[in-house]
Prior knowledge:
alpha/beta; disordered N terminus; seven-stranded mixed β-sheet
Amino acid sequence: MVRLTRRGFVKASAALAAGPAFAALPAQAQGPAPDTGNLRVEKDIVFGRGGGKDLTLDVYRPPEGVTSKRMAIVHLFGGGFFVGNKNAGYIVNDARALGARGYTSVSANYRLQSEGSWPAQIHDVKAAIRWTRANAGRMLALMAAGTNGRPAFEGDGGNAGVSSEVNACIGVYPLASAQTATGLFAQGQATPENIAAASPTSYIEKGFAPTIFI
């Protein structure tokens, strides 16, 4: 059995749920995908569409015999919006540790800078959150936490009418440079106003989901 301390759980990730919802942004990691062990895995589920492409996610359910909690954890890969995908090895490692405690993990893709300009990325994240809630019966984190109840960030990726609110957020090395922010926008659109609108710090007010930085 995988042992998970309180600190290990905080490092582990992210999350959003069928009931409560959480989301996290871990650092990018490389290497071969680790063994999923005895997790029950569903791969490449289409949860919506963005920019004419299917958006996919993987679901990692607890092993047989482990009592499932009424909560799912949504993992968002790191990479500065330039690189990465839902198959990051550290996400699978975290899913194994969390699965042993009864948590279902969802690892979702979102469009990179080369595939869509801001706010495409947060639209995709919220679509993944809505899919998770909409499918609770069968199974850019800081921005998701800070934009609860803001229709402009919802997008049209799927499951309209389902809540995308985040209940809590864990940001692991949530650092972004000005160059990264500029790259989110189409040519000529990286104005100071647009860059500020893409920053989670612009939404620090009542309603921002409880957040911890690691």
